[in-house]
Structures are given as structure tokens and as C-alpha cells.
Amino acid sequence: MNSRFRKITYQIHLWLGLTSGLIVVIMAVTGCILAFEKELKHTFYPEKYFVKNIGKEKLQLSDLKLKAEQALPDSLKVSRVEISSDPSRSYAFRSLKMNNEALTFWGSYIYYYRVYIDPYTGKVLEVENAKTEFFEIVMDLHRRLLLGEKIGKTITGYSTLILAIMLFSGLVIWFPRKLNKNAIKGMFFIKTSANWKRINYDSHNVLGFYAVIPLLLISYAAVIWNFEDIDKWIKNTLNGNVKTEKAKSTIPSEEFTDKKSIINLVGNTVGKSLVNKESALINFPKTEEGIYYAEVTYGNKQYQNEQFNFDQYSGKVLKHQSYKDKNIGNGTALRERNYDLHTGSLFGIIGRFIYLFAGMIAASLPITGFIIYLNRKKKKPKKKVHTKIHKKRYALSK
User: Fold this and answer.
1) Would you state the torsion angle of the CA atoms of residues 44, 49, 55, 59, taken in this order, to the nearest 10 degrees?
2) How far is it, in rounded angstroms, from Cα 257 to Cα 195?
3) What pLDDT score was predicted for residue 238?
4) Residues 118, 119, 122: CA angle, nearest 5 degrees
5) What per-residue confidence (pLDDT) applies to 397?
6) What sign results for the dihedral spanned by CA atoms 86, 87, 88, 92?
């Protein structure tokens, strides 16, 4: 490999690492915490996620929605409900309003509540202020560094791009100048019998190599989320630039008074579709032309779902789409898999554990890399420098 190219690559790797290292550590550590967020929440907060007694029949969705709104402060309205096929699980209603111009996490949410309700009795299990909930804070730290949508998201977005460049440049540096038996062994194994500096170097080099593929996949998915133009370009290109129209409700000519029965119709339709599946969410309409949007997930992979658009005045299904549909479009199919690709769930439980370990390695790389930098930066002893100067003076005096 060309030594000049290798030196340039090393300098790129070094300075990008020094400028983004702390941010990478934060994103990696928070990502590790969120890797099993669902399981951790169910373990730490069972009182709000599970009901004590499973009843024979659940209350209608409109009644549960009303009870959730009555439990909220300031007469707030709910915008979403999350439902599980597990009969022991509660319903989680969400009330949220964001300010994307704010510069902090707490300023970004004008209000953010979750109301957990027993679907059999209508009892409110807990009203959670999500602005102070641990996992929500960790999630925002992961996505926006608690610095709001404008600044925080921009920083994490470009840091993710930098991470991808560093992974590729790291591969160049990882490959030895000369291939021999010892060099090949050093590519894949840490020499534990060596001194701490060598162990640190090997940890950075070897572990970084093993984590490079999952970290590149994580980075790709994060870039798609953070850069809307890239997301649209990939989606439209793979879909063949086919335009899709958003579903809209038809506003009735007469005053609409049957909202309760429509909510129940939507709830019952989603409930039937949820049988033998994992979970569902329903977004309630926000405008006069808005729709009820429902998404039913088949299992632990979020992309395996079917989606419904309901007219808010008639309850008619305006659009129905399943991940199994052949005409879904390659771009849409790829975009739907983005969350599962980012979390590792696309590859099952083993994939999630691999991503967890890759995240732990990612958190260590800026630290071990900085130690390597400090070790190389140390100046040579002054005594040797003086000796060279005396030798030159002696040679000139002859």
C-alpha cells in the first residue's frame, strides 16, 4: 500500500477522531442503554406496563381515550395510543407537542405525557411526564445531545458521517504495511502478554475491525434519519420516482357528531388485525382533512407491519398496505427496514446482542485512540537531542 496514501489516511482518521470522539462516546453509550429499552422498561416499571387482573372484555377505545384525556392536565388531548396483543399489557396514550426551534431537550417539548390505562377497567395506572423519564432523556441524548432539533440533530448527523469515514480510514490503517505471520496474527488478536501500550493499541485496532460492519450499518441508518434530502433521494431513486398521494378525509357537508362510534370502529378493526401479531399504534387525526393512521406490527421486526388509513368521518379504509405487498417499491421497503437495521433487530435477537457489543466497542474506540495519540505525541528525551547537537558542532569544528 502506498505509504503517502497511508499517512494521509492516518491524519484524516486522527483529526476526525479528535474532533468527534466525545460525541461518538455519548451516542455509543446511550445506544447501548437503548439496545434493550423495551425489556428494561418492562423490568423496572411493571406497575404501568402490566395489569394486575386480565378481564374478559376490553372497554371501547373511545371510552379509554376519554379517561386518558380526563387524567391529563390543562385539558390536553391525546394524539396516539399504543396497544399490545399481550392481554396482560396496558394501553399507553400519548399527548405531545414539540417546539423544533428550541435549543434544549426540555424546551423542545412544550408538553409530553403518557397515560397508562387498564383496558379492562379503565383505571389510570400512571400519568407519566415523559420530559423527566430516564429512557426518554437517554433517547434525546442519543439523537440530539439534549441540544434541540436544530443544533443537536445537526451535530449528531454530521458526527455519524464522520464516524463512517473514520471506519473506512481505520480499515486502511488496520491493514499492515507488510504481510507476514506475525502481522496477520496482530490483525485479528490482541497480544495480552505485551505491555499496556501495545494492549491498548491492539484493542483499538482489533476490536475496531470486528465492530466495523455493524457500526457501518448503524451509521447508514442514522444518516437516513438525520438527512432528509438523502433519505428522499434514495427512496425516490429506488422507487423509480413514482409519486404517492397522501390519504385525506372527506369533510362532510353537514355537522359531524358521530366521532365516538368512528373511533370504536377504527379500534375494533385494528383489534381484529392484531390477532396473532405483536402490537399496534393508532395516530388520531389533527386536522379537518386528517386521518386515523394505524400500524400493526407482526413481530419483533418493526418493518413487518401493515398500515391502515381511515377516513375520520366515515371510518372507511382509504388505504391499506402490507410489507408483503409486491408493489410496495424497493425504496419504501428499504426505508421501512431502517429502524430494524439501526437497532439490529433486523437480524433477530443475535443481531441485537452483536449491535450491543459493537456499541460498547464504539464507545471505547475514541478513548483507546486518544491514548495512542498521547503516547505518540510524547517528545523524545532532551538528552538525545543535546547529544545530536554536540555531534554536529564537533563535526563542524574539525
Assistant:
1) 160
2) 77
3) 85
4) 65
5) 47
6) positive
Query: How far is residue 112 CA from its own chain's centroid?
Result: 19
pLDDT at 129: 95
Please state, in angstroms and as integers, the Cα–Cα distance from residue 292 to each residue in 114, 151, 185, 250, 318, following that order: 19, 32, 58, 13, 10
Rounded CA-CA distance 361/18 in Å is: 17
| Closest residue by Cα to residue 219 from 112, 91, 331, 355 | 355
The pTM for the full model equals 0.86
Alpha-carbon gap, residue 204 to 358, rounded angstroms: 13
Question: Listing from the earlier edge strand, what are the strands of the sheet with 124-129?
Answer: 124-129, 109-117, 91-98, 80-84, 279-283, 291-297, 305-311, 317-322
- Grid cell, residue 266, equals 377504527
Query: Kind of pairing, strands 80-84 and 317-322?
Result: unpaired
Residues 6+ apart with CB under 8 A from 57: 120
Hey, how many other C-beta atoms are within 10 angstroms of the C-beta on 29? 17
What gap in Å lies between CA 108 and CA 131, rounded to an integer?
10
What's the pLDDT score for residue 233? 87
pLDDT of residue 378: 76
**Residue 131 has which C-alpha cell?**
420530559
Angle at 257 between CA 256 and CA 260, to 5 degrees: 120
Domain boundaries, the chain: 1-242+329-398
Ranges under pLDDT 50 in the chain:
394, 396-397
Interhelix angle 61-71/259-273, nearest 10 degrees: 110
